[in-house]
Predict the structure.
Amino acid sequence: MQQTVNKEIAKSRIYSLDILRGVVIILCVFLTAIPKGDYEYHFAHHADWYGITLIDFILPAFITMIGTSMAIGYKKGVNWLKLSKRTFLFILYGLIFTMIISWNLDFATLRFTGVLQLFAIIGVLTAIITRITQSPLKIMIIALFITSLYGGFVISFSEGCSESLPQPTCNPSQPIDSFIFGENHLYHQGKPGYDPEGLLVSLSALSNSLIGFAMGRILLNRKTGTVWKQLFIYGSIIVIFAFIWKEFLPFNKKIWTPSFSLLTAGATCLSLSFLYLIYDHFQISKQTSLLNPINFFLEGFGRNSFFNLFREFYP
């Protein structure tokens, strides 16, 4: 009986999603291993403010795939009790981890924000919003609306900034997050002028999760045989919108501008389209044994991504 259940689970898994998560984790491990002072490898270091590098894709890609996994895991409905428990634990673990890596038990200066807290907030908001509709197209439209609303607010706030663009010391993140959490409880106690995992950024990063959720809904219809085409079309459209937004707000991970959110989500969608075509549509891994060692390695990281990833993104 147990063997039958295991076979059904294995059959229902989307191999390409595990592989993509594995690729993201491997990139994370190797890129973060490059010394920060080695500027010859600029792609391995986060952009100082405007711009985007390879490592900047890691966190938003993972958030996008969290949305994808939620769509698959919640296909029969949300267990709100389990979701509430997971949210509480994510926030608790995030606070504990912050104390460990900063070696600081002073609650007066404990950072309340962080990557795991970001995951927790986005997870709850995604679950709530996707109760409205399960249509991939409508969910993506909602994601575009949210990131555009955020972008409009940032542009309006930044009219008095240099070049009328957000700057490290002139952007809405610092005053809003300081008001909510208190300056001493932000990233570097608010001294950089922004919080890369603050509440304001979380609202923008929500677009990544929603687009990922839409991707998951598309994957659930894989019997149609056109999944990879749908992912490719949606991913291409999202990337086009990213470059449209770039004309108003350049790529910026620190405050998660709409162009950054859409480019990273679109790139994740296109990558999944390519991998789905290879691994789930043509099932190339079953036709050749040459890739088995690589696939085994990537799949192992992809299925156990949480413990390999979350420590990498704390400043």
Q: What stands out?
A: The chain has a mean pLDDT of 84. The radius of gyration is 20 Å. The longest helix spans residues 258-281. The chain has one domain: 44-289.
